[in-house]
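[Discussion] Sanity-checking designs against the backbone

I'm trying to build intuition for which residues belong where. Below is a structure token string of 277 positions. I'd appreciate it if someone posts a full sequence so I can compare it with mine line by line.
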């Protein structure tokens, strides 16, 4: 498990491109047959991915990092399949997972394993995990069951639909909030006009991008913006003091996960376009 530490905004002002990428970019999430995990000290997020091949892959804890015998002893997890069809088994109960299906697993589950229906077209499970102090039941939701919110316009190149899976009006959780945003063809901007929410951190995972496509992910304080170039199936950690916006060379999809003081999706501090620097 890779470990990332928290960074002060005054320190980040002096980072060059390499340092920004070392601190905030999660370069690779999917290795066939292996669990890939990144532990962030920002709100104790764990970001991970797994591609089960011929055999299922079990969700296992690194006791030296989280100090627990099982991964979900004191945690919850949200999982979204971004690949082929598969299944997730939680303490003997199997859930069918099609593309863009979401599964929430609450604190205390002991045995979680990931599988693909076809090793030639494997499932790809992307997940976020946060500490939990209450147990909520395991719940699956297909994209058709998520709460859609249509935003933006074609004129501003940001026409998009936000699907909320784990939130106050959907799947209940202790603190994790998680969903997915799909940009329409011809739209490239996300979360613009931008905002911060100093009460919560966020992680973005970009996918459904062509091999030669990139997203310029914007971060930093509104008056000290920086950017990180992301490619298909890469993620980026966004501290609570940072904006989190981006523009791509084409439309794309991204999964967002949040954790912190509250679960109110609309709790954000808007940044006026004239104030960006």
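Best answer:
Here's mine. Compare freely.
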């Amino acid at each position: 498990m890779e470990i990332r530490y928290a960074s002060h905004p005054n320190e980040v002002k002096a980072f060059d491109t390499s340092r920004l990428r070392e601190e905030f970019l999660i370069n690779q999430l999917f290795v066939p047959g292996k669990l890939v995990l990144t532990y962030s000290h920002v709100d104790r997020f764990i970001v991970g991915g797994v591609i089960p091949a011929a055999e299922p892959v079990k969700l296992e804890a690194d006791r030296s990092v989280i100090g627990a015998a099982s991964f979900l002893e004191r945690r919850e997890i949200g999982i979204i399949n971004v690949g082929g069809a598969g299944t997730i088994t939680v303490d003997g109960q199997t859930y069918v997972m099609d593309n863009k299906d979401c599964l929430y697993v609450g604190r205390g589950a002991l045995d979680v394993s990931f599988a693909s229906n076809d090793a030639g077209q494997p499932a790809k499970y992307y997940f976020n995990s946060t500490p939990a102090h209450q147990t909520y039941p395991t719940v699956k939701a297909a994209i058709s069951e998520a709460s859609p919110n249509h935003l933006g316009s074609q004129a501003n190149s940001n026409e998009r639909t936000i699907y909320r899976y784990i939130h106050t009006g959907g799947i209940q959780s202790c603190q994790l909030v998680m969903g997915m945003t799909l940009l329409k063809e011809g739209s490239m901007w996300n979360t613009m006009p931008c905002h911060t929410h100093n009460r919560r951190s966020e992680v973005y995972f970009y996918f459904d991008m062509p091999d030669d496509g990139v997203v310029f992910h914007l971060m930093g304080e509104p008056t000290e913006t920086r950017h990180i170039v992301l490619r298909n199936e890469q993620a980026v950690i966004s501290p609570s003091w940072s904006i989190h916006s981006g523009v791509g060379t084409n439309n794309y999809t991204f999964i967002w996960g949040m954790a912190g003081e509250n679960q109110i999706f609309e709790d954000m501090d808007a940044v006026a376009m004239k104030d960006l620097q």
